[in-house]
Amino acid sequence: MSPLWLLILILVLAIAGFAIGRTRAMASVDDHRKLHSRPNYYGTNVAMLAFAPAALLLAVWVVAQPIVINASVSHLIPETSYEDAGALNLIMSDVKRVAEGLDVAVAQGALSAEEARSIRTEFTDVRARLGEVGVALGANVDRDVLRAAQAYRARAATGTWFMTAAVLIVALAGFFFAIREARGDFRARNRVENGILTLLITAASIAILTTLGIVLSLLFNTIEFFRLYPALDFFTRLEWAPSFSGRGGASALGILPLLWGTFYISIVALLVATPIGLFAAIYLSEYASKRVRAFAKPLLEVLAGIPTIVYGLFALLTVGPLLVSVFGNGGLLGVDWMGGGRAVMTAGITMGVMLIPFVSSLSDDIINAVPQAMRDGSYGLGATQSETVRQVVLPAALPGIVGAVLLAASRAIGETMIVVLGAGAAARMSLNPFEAMTTVTAKIVSQLTGDSDFASPEALVAFALGITLFVVTLGLNVLALYIVRKYREQYE
Amino acid sequence: MKDNMEGRKLVDQMDVKFQTRDVQVYYGDTHAIKDVNVDILDKTVTAFIGPSGCGKSTFLRSLNRMNDTIPIARVEGKILLDGEDIYDPKVDPVQLRAKVGMVFQKPNPFPKSIYDNIAYGPRIHGLARNKAELDDIVEHSLRRGALWDEVKDRLQEPGTGLSGGQQQRLCIARAVATEPEVLLMDEPCSALDPIATAQVEELIDELKQNFSVVIVTHSMQQAARVSQKTAFFHLGNLVEYGDTDQIFTNPVDPRTESYITGRIG
Ligand SMILES: Nc1ncnc2c1ncn2[C@@H]1O[C@H](COP(=O)(O)OP(=O)(O)O)[C@@H](O)[C@H]1O
Ligand SMILES: [Mg+2]
Fold it and tell me: Where do the domains of chain B lie, and which CATH numbers do they carry?
């Protein structure tokens, strides 16, 4: 039975269980006020026990079965026919494709089940037979591959059979166990509450485990990279020059030029976003009338909803040319600082614009959290509004604002599209902000796009870059959240 | 006829600080203060008492135009400080508040050092010509706030780190530092424990030698202890105003009596 049908079946069982459990519990007492829990809880308890363990088993099985079978079938491929793990993977995907092809052929009646189990490459042109039913294979089917595919099918069929049996047994066991429990004095409500709690905990763990999984996958690939390329070189070399023709030693993969570009652009962005965002926040929270605020705040926040690729286009088509017309050759200032539109300034300014609503919205919340009593105290001493803002409100909000700026910084560091389009691709360590530079994120993109061989250091370096970036932004976020939280506590 | 009456009342009496005539305060459509006429004396503690929501705070805040910071609040009638209308367009509310200081219900020290909390007002108003003078003002104010001995060794520590009672005395010292002529206090002890309350009351008693003090309080005992004059408010009206002794022992209005004996409130 296919997993979907199984799922439907246990769902039906659960619904039936709900009705039966409810009825049985009601029948077990003469007055249903004597029930420990309301009748629905007894029904839910049965449904829960019938469904949850079985569904869980089904999910685990569906994930685990292919992995297990894959591992056992791959032993059937002679070791002489492949060189490394990558090649074995390719062969195994052929095996799966042939196995699926045989399934399709059987389903369409082109092969009998017996034939599918026993055909041999020596007697049958499997590629042609499968081609007839619409499964195109790239090459003639190898003898071992066909054998493996047949074994794969056989084991998959057995596995599915066992799965069906096991899931049904578990579902029925839960069902009957719960039905037997559905009596007036059973504490169904507490059991159901526990079930709900488990559900919530599971949801929370999934979020955490996913993060952990991401970190681990980054970490393993990074370790793999450091096996091929010395870590010391990666962290200290001042040159970034990956070569895709030669392998290994020919490339210079130093992260410093990329980090330099990242920080340079981020600092320009923060220099733009912090004052403008902060002043906007002060205006909105301290001076603006209710009507202006009601209309300006959402408008500012719309800026935050613009996809970053659009900002990238803005950098490429508007900001870059504008800057060139001022700082470039023959520009308004008569200086020749800027060669092309792509530059640290282009990306930095655009990114700054992107961050304005972020800074202003967070700062606005923080300024609003400064108690009115603080302002009253200042007004009560004869201070003007601007004195109050400068000397009382801002100092009180400062830690929170610092936190907001740090959060903005970690966004700037992780930003990709704007730098890909606005900053250029040259890894360079220069002080001139009108020169093109590139960032960690932009290089991760370029190392993994196109035909990349995932076993080469030139591709694996992307993971090392990624984890470095992750550590930096994580550190910033933790620091920022710590500061913001400290600040909140102050006024609670 | 109204002019007539004003003419009579406006005669400069040396010891009258505030004179209010037919004061109305509205919050939007809510009529929170109705026809209040009262003379508040100099170098005297005046207590405002009355049940919650009767408008004590509202009236107090109209005496230094703190109500200006509430957009929907509107004040009508005349409020004269030393004979001058404080709602006259010529009057800058910011300067008025330097003369009529305010202490709030909850201590609200600024997130600055103890020293900077006290120096805040003097700095804004340029009361000190140099650091030494400012130091003097800070010390003097803290002494008047009965806080000097407790904090003199830690003036650079944050004011928010003090205990509740100390914070409130810091706020009083802060208000005193700008050398106001009147000090308005809105339930200054309601967030304090009995010991801190006693300290603040003692302080109020000393302050009256130099200032006119107006204090809103919920505690009848407190009003009786610290004030010489008492005003009883009820539903936005000033019901009775007189010597504290008389109000507490021999009230004229039946509502005052009910409140004092605990039957309304
Ligand atoms: N900021 C405000 N906005 C609207 N109404 C207010 C505001 N402050 C006070 N009021 C109203 O004015 C009346 C008097 O309040 P208040 O002066 O605070 O009373 P009290 O201090 O005597 O308890 C109350 O009915 C209250 O609801
Ligand atoms: Mg009040």
Answer: 2-260 (3.40.50.300)
